[in-house]
Specification:
- Helix 6 (about 145-155) links the parallel strand 5 and strand 6 (about 160-165).
- The protein is α/β, with parallel strands linked by helices.
- Helices cover about 35% and strands about 15% of the residues.
- The strands form three sheets. A two-stranded parallel ribbon has the order 1-2.
- Helix 5 (about 115-125) packs across helix 6 (about 145-155).
- The chain contains seven helices and six strands, in the order ααβααβββαβαβα.
- The protein has helices at about 1-10, 25-35, 45-50, 50-55, 115-125, 145-155, 165-170, and strands spanning about 40, 60-65, 95-100, 110-115, 135-140, 160-165.
- The longest helix is centred in the C-terminal third of the chain and has 14 residues, at about 115-125.
Length: about 170
């Protein structure tokens, strides 16, 4: 599940860059090269569909989340970026990067540090009275900025994140 992957990446001390698997190969290539990605955590179905693209990403190690047993992300090569499991990120450490739609021609990365994310999550907790017992339907795809509120705003305040199938939302 995606939330587990995101939490695993953050646990290692790395930042995440969500990429829409529906993007054209050119855009995925541009984004991964532009941000100097070292690892790509994905699933087998995407590896099968995008094999040609993945071969064009020298220096990017592909980690198949479908084959990582149990809590294996903490033992993956990504974890080499951390000095220990108890290290907390600093406020200025990068948490995630999102790329713009590219309306000006070329997509640009927007880097969000932990300070900015924590401020957002504090706001979420205050305005939505977040806490244990709160149930939030995650309606936003992980590659859009509002997903940070849905996912982390709910989880850090002890709520339950409810993933809803796309076909259910359309009926």
């Amino acid at each position: 599940p995606l939330c587990t992957v995101l939490l695993g990446v953050l646990k290692t001390g790395a930042a995440y860059l969500p990429v829409n698997p529906g993007y054209p190969d050119e855009r995925v290539h541009l984004v991964l090269n532009d941000c100097n990605s070292k690892f790509l955590v994905t699933e087998q179905s995407i590896i099968d569909r995008r094999d040609g693209l993945l071969r064009q990403l020298p220096g990017v190690e592909v980690i198949n989340a479908d084959t990582v047993p149990g809590n294996g992300l903490s033992r993956s090569p990504v974890s080499a970026q951390r000095t220990g499991p108890g290290d907390a990120p600093e406020a200025d450490d990068l948490m995630y990067v999102l790329y713009t739609s590219g309306s000006t021609g070329t997509p640009k990365g927007v880097a969000i540090d932990h300070r900015g994310a924590v401020n957002l999550l504090d706001w979420f907790g205050e305005h939505f009275e977040a806490g244990p017992g709160l149930r939030v339907a995650q309606l936003t795809d992980y590659y859009f900025d509002p997903s940070v509120e849905d996912i982390f705003g709910t989880l850090v305040h002890g709520g339950t994140l409810c993933r809803t199938a796309k076909d259910v939302l359309l009926h």
